[in-house]
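job 3f2a | input accepted
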Amino acid sequence: MYIDEEIVLREDLPEGLRRDFAELREYYDAGDWFLFDTFFEAVEASVKAYYLAGKISREDLNCIFRKYGIL
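job 3f2a | predicted structure (71 res):
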C-alpha cells in the first residue's frame, strides 16, 4: 500500500474521484492501513467504473493505477 508522490493526477478529475482520493490520503497520512485498504478496494472499483463510463481517459486510468500501486 502506497501513494507515489511523484505522480500528479490532473486537477479536473471528476469530483467524486477527487473526494475518494482525499479520503484515501487521510487514512494514509494517519497510518490507518485497515481503513486505507478497505476503502481502497471501493475506490479501485469506482475508478474502473468512471473509465468504463467514459468519464476518465485510459491515460487517467493508468496514471491513477501507477500512483496507487494497482499495476
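job 3f2a | Residues 9 and 63 are 7 Å apart (CA to CA).
job 3f2a | closed
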